[in-house]
Amino acid sequence: MYPKIDPYETGALKVSDIHTLYYELSGNKDGNPVVFVHGGPGGGTDAADRSFFNPEKYKIVLFDQRGAGKSTPSASLEDNTTWDLVKDIEKLREYLNIDKWHVFGGSWGSTLSLAYAQSHPDKVKSLVLRGIFTLRASELRFFYQDGASHLFPEAWDEYLAPIPEAERGDLILAYHAQLNSVDDQTRITAAKAWAKWEMSTSKLYVDPAHIAHADEDKFANAFARIENHYFVNNGFMRDGQLLEPQEIDKIRHIPTVVVQGRYDVVCPATTAYALKKVFPELTLHIVPDAGHSSREPGNAKYLVKATDGFANL
């Protein structure tokens, strides 16, 4: 990854009567524009996200999605859907007076990047995607109900802890009740447990510092509430919509690279493979020594290689 840099501009873009997005620009003011689409949903951006791009070649656009990071109001679920976020990305492009840009997203960021590209294919120069997630019921069931639990049983026990045994038949729904409780302590306890489950499973080599991020009240509250809101509502789309042939046909002309950790249990490789089967034009790198996190060396190597490859496109 490239060395740490600071933004040369930060700002706030009001996108609705309720929501205002934080955005920042870094790198080359006159460079090739690229937008970084963060995960979660609800995860927000981080300074290290700038480092996937050559700062001499790219005009790097980072923004926090509705309710996430520095966007306001924090953790708000109102008017917060996939299609609201797609519209927000387009509003940001227009606001910044960018004709076309490269789109980079991982995990939920890959979901939103695909949704945006399929909605505005003429505005996307390239797609660099990591840890493919298409919000199908089977993907949610694997991570939040029965699948990853077999690989991380000790972390799974902590995830189960806030939920009464009688309510464990649908854990996403059970968490929804607690994450929307009027009792602050119930809500925060559930949010931290939800966030800790994902942080505990995101890397091939478990990282205590990464897991500790789940103990931050503001982050956990936004991350857990917004993720769960999207998952209870099936991503506000048809099951498998992003993989449907008529949707893929809209983006076949867009140069696309997918980086997928072989041992990613948050967004397992089966989904990236399903995307490759319906979109054979893309380049798929299955990284043999990586899990879910974009910062793992194997994943980061291929992501930077991809952005370097598109820097002059």
UniProtKB/TrEMBL annotation:
It comes from the Eukaryota. This is Proline iminopeptidase.
